[in-house]
Design brief:
The protein has one domain. The chain has a two-stranded antiparallel sheet with strand order 1-2. The chain contains four helices and two strands. The protein is an alpha+beta fold.
């Protein structure tokens, strides 16, 4: 899971400026139970990526950016899309 997340993190560095992979990984390693949610997102076709930090909890926020982009495209076409993004911290 870490290999996939790191690759996506580095590929889309503009999504999470001010946050580095070492910090993101350390936060995930300190809460391994949170990896289950990310794995489920990935398993069901999502592509979770770090979106930033939650200032209240100091936890990571993940979005399925591919679903968010699909939602934007569907909106332009007049179609709706459920579960456009997912997050957790």
């Amino acid at each position: 899971m870490f290999i996939v997340l790191k690759s996506r993190f580095e590929k889309n560095i503009d999504r999470h400026q001010g946050l580095d992979w070492a910090d993101a990984r350390a936060r995930l390693e300190s809460h391994p139970e949170k990896l289950w949610s990310l794995n489920e997102m990935e398993r069901t076709g999502g592509e979770p990526d770090v979106a930033g930090l939650d200032m209240e909890t100091d936890g990571l926020i993940f979005y399925d950016h591919e679903a968010l982009e699909a939602r934007k495209a569907n909106k332009r076409d007049g179609y709706g899309c459920c579960h456009a993004y997912r997050d957790f911290n």
